[in-house]
Structure formats: structure tokens, C-alpha cells
Amino acid sequence: xxxxxxxxxxxxxxxxxxxxxxxxxxxxxGSLVRVSDGALSTYGLVYDVTTxxxxxxxRPIARGKDEEDEAAVFRNxxxxxxxxxxxxxxxxxxxxxxxxxxxxxxxxxxxxHAFVHICTLEEVADFSGSLDFLANLVAPGFPxxxxxxxxxxxxxxxxxxxxxxxLVRAGKELAVLLSGDLRRLNAILRRxxx
Amino acid sequence: xxxxxxxRGKRLGMVVGGSLLDGMAVRLDSGDSVEDMAVGRYVxxxxxxxxxxxxxxxxxxxxxxxxxxxxxxxxxDPFVAxxxxxxxxxxxxxxxxxxxxxxxAVSILDGPQPVKTVPSHFSEVREASEEDVALVFGRExxxxxxxxxxxxxxxxxxxxLKRFGERSSGIFGKSGTGKTFLTRILLIGLVQKGAAAxxxxxxxxxxxxxxxxxxxxxxxxKGLKQLFPAKVAVFTLDEESSRARKVxxxxxxxxxxxxxxxxxxEMLSELLRLSPRAMDAIGFLLKKFGSSRWLEAFLSIESxxxxxxxxxxxxxxxxxxxxxxxxxxxxxxxxxxxPRTVEDSVxxxxxxxxxxxxxxxEFGRYSDLLAYVLVANILTRRIHSRYVDATERAxxxxxxxxxxxxxxxxxxxxxxNPGVAKQTIFGTIAREMRKYNVTLLVVxxxxxxxxxxxMSQIGTRITCLLDNEKDIDAVLTGISGKNELRxxxxxxxxxxxxLVVGHAVPMPVVIRTRDYGSPESYRDLGFASAAxxxxxxxxxxxxxxxxxx
Lengths: 194, 549
Ligand SMILES: Nc1ncnc2c1ncn2[C@@H]1O[C@H](COP(=O)(O)OP(=O)(O)O)[C@@H](O)[C@H]1O
Ligand SMILES: [Mg+2]
Description:
Oligomer: heterodimer
Bound molecules: adenosine-5'-diphosphate, magnesium ion
Largest sheet of chain A: 6 strands, antiparallel, barrel
Distance between the termini of chain A: 27 Å
Radius of gyration of chain A: 18 Å
Structural class of chain A: alpha+beta
Strand order of the largest sheet of chain A: 1-2-5-4-3-7
Helix content of chain A: 25-40%
Strand order of the largest sheet of chain B: 9-8-23-22-21-10-20-19-11-18-14-15
Number of helices of chain A: 7
Number of domains of chain B: 4
């Protein structure tokens, strides 16, 4: 069963932000999440995780000087968990409808408060059957660390698929996409190396 | 679209550009290494309406980005190396389209046609399958003879021997590349299929009884007479040598002084180091003694005084005649050259040929050019003139015409170089084509020294490795796709591979010449065993002379 981790709090056509139910419990950078929203599920790739004070005006102060470990800080200050929040930002990488996966943008962005699940390895394997989404990650206007994201997701997908040829195929796709920028290609390849 | 499908060769890539003149550029699929490609290999392009047959003529490396050439990626890393290959870098092969085959039933019946267009963009390119090659080069039949296999294939490439013999043909290649073996194989084909009668001037005694193969160890290989005892006669110029080699000969050839014409001597002027002045002196001798007596008259003079007297009477310097004597005295050493002959060799040869036999003339120990050029020239001139007579007497009646005759000569450039080709009989035969049913099979290692006009008349050219640019140019004159074929030619293996172009094949093809000399090779040719050969020989004799029982 896919694990539910949070809810959409902001969305647009190409991406969305979700808040985690638990502090510091965001899905890993580069993981695949699914937002189920009625008949449509939107797939997102996690590329930015932020933990901050719920009141932007107040900065936290250091509290652990006399504590034994980090966990004790939260144990002895139970209010802290409520004063902070963890959000994660996703790139819309495709959507699923009626049992099929499409690797392009859904007709509408996910709605606010829609539930966000971390995809199972099986879902990751299904989703990575096509590598079309890679083009968006390495496109010039991408707001996040696209190259890092590509590397991270491809490592995950390769684990999910248990397919030796997968990384090579993905690498070749990237080599074509980045044909004019060998330095970047090399950098990504180093990040996705098995 | 799978890589392998039954009846179809392995997929290589797709057409990405090109033209009919320059050939097509084929981008290799990323999985294929350029290292697996070979120039000369045969491919099929599957266009939408037609199938194209072509040949790989070049292989190039391409990169998507020039930067990669300046800062190469870390190829030591196998992961990076695997990705870069085929994606950032790729192989392109150039394919010369040669033939097309329609895909519908009617055009399949018509067989391969010359190309008039190119396949459309992104057409699939595959290695030619055995079936594809068989479609183009046919199967062995009454006139098609198996000469070899395309590179890396088992399919047979068959030559249309009827067409092969109809026009003069050539076998070229550096020394040791397999010309003699190829020639022998083709001669076997010509005899076996009865495509033509053969007269072979066998300079090194390789075709008649047996030849030798220089591999790791030298061994003998069967000559024509061993394979076709009843269809081949071995003539010799040197009976002693033939006997020493235990060759059963049918006739010993002698040539009379009276048969030597000034033209023959002129051909030898270089070999005999004859000056123009000496040639002029021959002219005077001719006037004084007549064409059938001049040589005998001159060579019979024994003393210098007598020779000087003759010089005076002819009005030439005595030094000229002395020099001429020095040169011509080399002819005295040729034992087959005699003042008068008992039997007419030309008559004998024609007799055998008329009876459907093939004649191999062994030179024995006279394996130098002097004897070879002299004898081949004298005999051919007279045989040709008989053929001209016979053909003209037949007045166009095909049944009355003499049978197609193929004359095999080695070191052909000695007879056909630009200096002599205009005058010699061999030049004439090559130029008049098949008018009188005589054609040449020339074997040569220096094709660039053959007269250009003669070369242009050579219908089928089989070329083993050549490394001299001029020679390569010469064998490819007048052939379309010359530039592509040039690369193919220069890349042949040093032995037993040849490029076949021209009249007897539907398209140029590189072959690995069929093996010759092993027991299996004789069996492949239809000769079961020594016992079988003997049995067949007896039967042939019975057929010829009636049952002896
Ligand atoms: N078709 C063939 N089958 C077997 N051996 C061959 C064949 N062609 C060439 N060879 C080998 O190569 C050697 C040289 O060939 P040869 O025909 O004598 O060359 P060339 O006449 O061009 O000098 C032969 O002695 C033989 O060992
Ligand atoms: Mg030879």
C-alpha cells in the first residue's frame, strides 16, 4: 500500500506544493509521489523539501545545549512539532487515468487538500516505462536542481525495475537531450551511476 | 521491429541521407559497433515499395557534438562508455545502392533491376540474408557457375559463364593474391558447363596437369587434365620438362622460323633490347629474303665476316647487324624454334578445339617472357585468322560459326600495353569484341599497363587485392560507383578475395573465392574421387570412340 504523507497546499499546471503530516517526514528527494484526485492521479517528482517556522516572522532558537541528543529536544519541548512544518515541492511528471499512465501534463492541476502518497516500487517501475519526462528536468527553465533530480529519480527507478539496461537507456536519452552540453551530461551520468 | 527475423538479415540501422550518385548514409543503431561492419559487405534496404540491394563502401564515425572530440568523456568508465556509444557518438556506414527488387509478384519474376532512385528517409537497413543474396546471384545451373561466397556468408555467388566468355574478361591482382587459383576455377567452370572452348597459354605449367598451392606446406592441386581427361589436351613446348613432371602430353609444339613475323619480333623489342635501327634492319632483311625466310636466313649466318658483308649489301651499319645478331641469338636457345616444322601446331590446336577439346599449352622450362610472348603471339595470330575465315564463311549462320573460343594469357600487359596493343593480335581481339567468337581471358598484376581502350572492352573484371593507385584506377575505368569500389578494392584480404564487376554478374560483389585443392573442393565441383574420375574418364572415352567391349 502506498503511504499517505500529506496534502496539496498549493498547485499550478506544472507543479504543486504539499505539506507533510509529520514534521521532517517528507518523501526523499527524487522520489515519485501520486496525488489521487477523483478519477485522475497526478504524478509528481519531489525536488524541494522545506522545513520552516509556521510563523514566518519568528525564527527558532537553539534549545539543545543541555540535552543528550536531538530527539530529547523535541521530547522536552512538545510544542515544537506544532510550530514547524515540512513542505515539499513537486514537478508534475505525468498522470494516470483509467489504468493508463501518460507522461505529459494532466488537464488540470491537483486540487488543494488532495492527498499525496509515496509511490510503491511497483508504481515507480510502471511509471519509468517511458523516459519522456526527462526532457522537462533538463530543460533550461526548470526551477529546481533538475540534473540532481534526474540522477536521483533514475537511481530509484533502476532499483525499482531491477533492470540492468535501464540506466544505460536513460543515459542514452540524456545524451541525446544534452547533446550540446557534454559537461552537464557527464555530471548527470556521474550522479546516476549504478 | 525485432533485430532478428527469419529470412531477413540482422537490422543495422536506417537511411538518414544520401543520393543515387554518392550512395546512402546509414546511421547505425546504437547497439551496433562500427567494428562489426566491413566494407564490401552486402546489405538490403527495405524501402516502402522496393527493396534495394547495396554494398557497404565506407564506415565513418560521427559525433553529435564537436566538443566531445576536444574533451572526450571518461571512456575508462564502462557505464559512461556504454552510454556515449551510439548516443553522443555513432557510426555511419555508406551504402552504394546497386539493384532494386519490387516487392510484388510481377517484379519478383522480373528479377533484380538497376537502381534508378534511392530508398526514402529512415528506411530500414539490414544485412543481406542468404535468401537475398541468392535472389541476386542466382543458383548454379547450365550457365551459372559458383565462384565464391560473399564476405561472411555461405550463399553462393554464381557467374554467368556464357556472358563471361562472350566478351574478354580479366583477372587482376598483386602477385600471390590468388589469380592463378581463380583462373583455374573459372576454366574448370568453362569446361564443365561447356560455355566455351579454351586455349590456355600456361606460362608456369599450372593449369594442365597439376599446380601447386603454397600454404603452410606446399601441396599439389589438380589441373584441368586430371579433372577432364577426355576434354582437355595438354600441349607442350618442352617435352623433356613435361616428361620429368610425369605429365602425359598430347602434342609437342614446334614453331618454324618461317612463322615468325617482324611483328612478333617488334613485340619483343624491349625484351631483346632491339634498337629502332635494328628494327629497320629487319625491314631490309624482309625485303631481301621475304617474310618466311628472313629469320632463317639471318640466323643461319655463322661468321662475322659473312654478316658484315650482308650489312654492306643491305646498306646498314655492320654494327647494327652485329647487335641484331646478339639480340636474336637468344632465339637460338629456344629449342622449340626450328627452321622447319614437321607438323603444323596451329592446325593441331584447331583440330582439338574443333572436336570440343580444350588445349593447355605448357611452356615447361621456357617460363620467361621471351618465349611466352613470342609463342602466344604467333599461335594466336594464326588461330585468330582461321576464326575470322570460318566466321565469315558462316555468313551469319549461327550453326556454322566456330565455337566460342576463350584464350587465356598471363602477363597480359606485355601483349596489351599502349605501345603494342594497336598492332598486336591480342589488341585486335580485345577491340573487335565478340565478332569472330574469340575472346581473351587476361591475367595480370599490372592492369595500369594495359592499354586503356583494351581495358574498356574487358567485360568482366575480377580483381584481387591491388595496392597501386594506378592499377586500381585502371580496373575501375568506366565502372559506375568507382570511388566506392576503390575503397572496397584497397581493403581486400591479401589472398582468396576478389571484387567481381561487369558483364557476368548483376552487380559488383566481393567474394571469398571458393576453396580449391582439397578433396572436398573436388567433390563440390562434382568430382567424387580418384576412382570416380577414372570411371568417368573411361566412359568419356567410350562415348568418343565407341564401346570397347
Ligand atoms: N581459391 C583458393 N583456394 C585455395 N587456396 C588458394 C585459393 N586462392 C589462393 N590460394 C592460395 O594462395 C596462394 C597464391 O595463389 P595464386 O593463385 O598462386 O596467386 P597469384 O597467381 O595471384 O600469384 C596459392 O598457392 C594458394 O595456397
Ligand atoms: Mg599466378
